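yo

u said u wanted the structure for the complex thing, so here. seqs first:
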Amino acid sequence: MKIGFIGVGIMGAPMAGHLLAAGHELAIYGRSKRPVALGAATFCLNSREVTEKSDTIILMLPNTPDVETALFGADGVAEGLTPGKLVVDMSSISPVATKAFAAKLADLGCDFVDAPVSGGEVGAKQATLSIMAGGGAEAFARARPLFELMGKNITHVGDAGAGQVAKIANQMIVALNIGAVAEALVFASRAGADPAKVREALMGGFATSRVLEVHGERMIARTFDPGFRIELHQKDLNNALESARQMGLALPATATGQQLFSACVAQGGAGWDHSALVRAIEVMGAHEIT
Amino acid sequence: MKIGFIGVGIMGAPMAGHLLAAGHELAIYGRSKRPVALGAATFCLNSREVTEKSDTIILMLPNTPDVETALFGADGVAEGLTPGKLVVDMSSISPVATKAFAAKLADLGCDFVDAPVSGGEVGAKQATLSIMAGGGAEAFARARPLFELMGKNITHVGDAGAGQVAKIANQMIVALNIGAVAEALVFASRAGADPAKVREALMGGFATSRVLEVHGERMIARTFDPGFRIELHQKDLNNALESARQMGLALPATATGQQLFSACVAQGGAGWDHSALVRAIEVMGAHEIT
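structre next:
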């Protein structure tokens, strides 16, 4: 199949590599240099050219404005589209904007699927990404064989935008679960208990979570190399809070979580692993987990 | 062994029943009527009399002031104690107060273990409670055989107060994980996605938690019969926030969680299951999960 791939960075390059390895004809475009591993792909001048050369166009870009520019800006995807082509946005962006993009692409006679992923760089390289997809049943069916080359846990959540909604819900829960474990372990440590023993006592009970398991351990061992960077998690929470504001929805816990990440950024922690949110609690309490 | 049991309510009565069934001689006291199932126990006039008749005295009371009164009030435990007796407080109360109680009992020549439980009424009846214990190694060793009659997952977390610290950490995480799932599912529903499908897409990934599994399902199925009542969870968070204030520790996420519970109480929800915290998010957003 003729596939276009726009955005070949840390995530996009290995994802596109899997499509190439499966024998697909690949046209790519990205602001970064042409990735060495994608030598067999055609490197295009812009998103329009990628689109002209392809039947399915995949985007993997940092945020909403990047996707909007790639789709509808000068020399963008829309200029190269002809009816019947399929656009798949695998970026993690605003679900509200995504619905608008899907509507505009439908007006051009094209199918659209939003399919953000979780699993990070490791998941992208190992083709084990979780993929949360939104879009019509036919569009999803067209995209699914490609998803299966890049990921494992593939869910069709609902109509256009539903993939982004699921991804944001995921990021909200992860951030707030990190906040929960952070406050609990700093509290325990400050009160004189051994945080490792407290974590152990809680595992298996009602407080059990993947975050308590993995990030709880990080907080105790003080290993804050990413992993998943705070600045990226802030982007996701910003999409949550901005979408919520547009819909007239209050998310007080998510808002607090975002502030705690900002307190880390104030300490120079934009590039820390998101488990380092614990440092925001520690600095406020003048107490580090010991 | 001669055991005293003070507080034979919903939790205490079945717990004391297991001790009785194991052949221990039991002296009990409580403000409620003598439980029928404890007919073979000696019902005493007050906590002093219970203590005089027993070598080990267990307390299972609602909150810090109740324990303080039972221990050190008129006709309380302290009046009946002689050196060498063991006091075990299985109530869920303040860890700061607990340390003070332990010190006063040590001055009287007595051992002390704080051993709050989780698992609720069902766990109490089935003797499957999780027990988080604080106290000296010898005191814990004395109490352990009794714990094994009442629970399954028994952890010696640390010195006196550490059991309460672990219990509070548990309750903080559970409350904040409920808040996380509540905001994520209301967001998803309001954005037009099917919350059941979103929950499904997230299970197994990094957002996985026992709360997403159990309470996420309750929020979608709208089954808010307790379970664990909001007013009880508020008591635990109050102990977290009050202890944190005494230690000079800020817990912004826990504070937000407590406010969300209060918003439920404002709607008449003190007796709802704690998963009904979702209603605080729903009422603010004028949107119920559908």
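The mean pLDDT of chain A is 96. Chain A has two domains: 2-158, 165-285.
cya
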